[in-house]
């Protein structure tokens, strides 16, 4: 198993893995593959990118992804690394791929002198909570807010 940074030639594999992830979270009515490819390409490889991704590979098969962005300011005037999604292909759960992706993510955070790595998980995702607890990380009680597309388009009128 190897972990690499996402590159444009990985877009098709990313689309397939993220389709599995969307199914895990109960999404239905996904966009056609060509639309999803364009969305991944724009998010990861436009200027500026919306985010970054580390990919876990078993030979030529993509088996995990960690997508992230940098946030500023964090402690003082440092930046933090925000993990948006960590997903491992279901057939590979409990195979240490998630741990390997988190280690690689922490290396990225150290390289860019981030003061924190932060993320959320759903309150009903006991498996993810157990995984993060077993890594020795600290759960911080915060409330998470979201404005959906209709709120954005209304301009919070």
Provide a concise account of the structure shown.
With 157 residues, the chain is an alpha+beta fold. It is built from five helices and five strands; from the N terminus they run βααβββαβαα. A five-stranded mixed beta sheet has the order 1-2-3-4-5, with helices on both faces.
By helix and strand content, what is the structural category? Answer: alpha+beta
For the terminal residues, how far apart are their CA atoms? 50 Å
Q: N-to-C SSE series?
A: EHHEEEHEHH
- Overall, the morphology is globular
| Radius of gyration computed on alpha carbons | 16 Å
**How many alpha or pi helices?**
5
Main beta sheet strand tally, sense and closure:
5 strands, mixed
Query: Unreliable runs, pLDDT <50, ≥5 residues?
Result: none
The proportion of residues in beta strands is 15-25%
The helix content, as a percent range, equals 25-40%
Please provide a written account of the structure.
With 157 residues, this protein is an alpha+beta fold. It contains five helices and five strands. A five-stranded mixed sheet has the order 1-2-3-4-5, with helices on both faces. The chain starts with a strand and ends with a helix.
Fold topology:
Elements: E1 2-5, H1 11-24, H2 33-45, E2 52-58, E3 61-71, E4 80-88, H3 97-111, E5 116-119, H4 126-134, H5 149-154
Parallel strand pairs: 4-5
Antiparallel strand pairs: 1-2, 2-3, 3-4
Keywords, separated by commas or semicolons:
5 strands; alpha+beta; 157 residues; single chain; 5 helices
């Amino acid at each position: 198993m190897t972990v690499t940074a996402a590159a444009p030639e990985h877009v098709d594999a990313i689309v397939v893995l993220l389709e599995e992830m969307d199914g895990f979270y109960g999404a239905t009515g996904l966009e056609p593959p060509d639309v999803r490819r364009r969305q991944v390409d724009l998010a990861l490889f436009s200027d500026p990118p919306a985010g970054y991704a580390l990919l876990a590979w078993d030979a030529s098969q993509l088996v995990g992804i960690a997508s992230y962005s940098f946030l500023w300011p964090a402690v003082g005037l440092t930046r933090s690394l925000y993990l948006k999604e960590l997903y491992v292909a279901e057939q590979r759960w409990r195979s240490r791929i998630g741990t390997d992706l988190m280690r690689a993510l922490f290396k990225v955070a150290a390289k860019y002198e981030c003061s924190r790595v932060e993320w959320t998980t759903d309150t009903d995702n006991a498996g993810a909570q157990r995984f993060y607890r077993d890594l020795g990380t600290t759960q911080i009680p915060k409330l998470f807010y979201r404005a959906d597309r209709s709120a954005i388009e209304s301009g919070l009128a």
